[in-house]
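INFO  loader      accepted 1 record
INFO  loader      residues=236
INFO  predictor   begin
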Amino acid sequence: MEAITLPIYNTEGKEIDSIKLDKAVFDGTINTHAIYQAINAYRANQRKGLASTKTRGEVSGGGRKPWRQKGTGRARVGSIRSPLWRHGGVIFGPHPRSFYYKLPQKIKNLALKSTLNAKLKGNNIIVLDGIKLEKPKTKEVSKIISNLKINPVRNTKAITGKNKISNGVKPTKESKPCKLLLLLDKIDSNLKVAAGNINFLNVSLVRDTHAYEVISHQKLIITKEAVSELTNRLKK
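INFO  predictor   done
INFO  writer      dumping C-alpha cells
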C-alpha cells in the first residue's frame, strides 16, 4: 500500500501544505477484535464497583433466636435476619470490588492504530498546521471550526414507532452534535479555556489519547506536530 498524503490546513481553512503519513501506522488495516478488547478494558477500568449489600451478619438485629428449637410446630429459625425472611440479609449479593484489568500494550497500540485507520478511511481526519489563541475567546475556536468547513450538526432520523409513516406523518429529523476531537502535542492555556465552552469539542494531548477516545468522536482534528508524535509513539 502506498503512503497516504493528507492536506494541511491553517486556522483560516486554507490548504498550505501536505503531509505524507507513515505506512507503518496508517496502513489501512482495521483490527476490530483489538478495538473491542481496548474499549471493554477502558470501560471496565472506569467502573467504581461501589455496589454493596448486607449479609445476615451485617443487618442490624437478629441476635436472639425467635423461638425455641422444638415443640412449637413451626420451622426452626436461628435469626429474624435470615435471608429467607423479609428484612433479612442478601445471599451472594454484590460487594465493593475492582473491575480493573490490564491490557497488553501491543493490543492497546493495535487498537489505536485501527481506530485511526478507520477515521482515515472515512475521510474524518483533518490536519492543522497549528493552533494558538492570543485570547481565551470561544468565538475564535468556533471560527476555526467554521473555516475548516466542519458541520457541527449531523441529521439523524428520530425513531417514531417502527420508523414508518403513521397517519400520513413522516418521521421527523432531529439535530445531534457531531463530536470533534482536537489532538495536540501541547495544550495552550487560552485554547483550553476557550474550547471548554464548546460542548461538541474535546481537546486532548496526543500522548494520552486511546482507542475509545478516538472512536467515540465523529471527526478528528490533529496538528502536524501531533501527527509526528503519534506516529513515533505507535512505531515503538
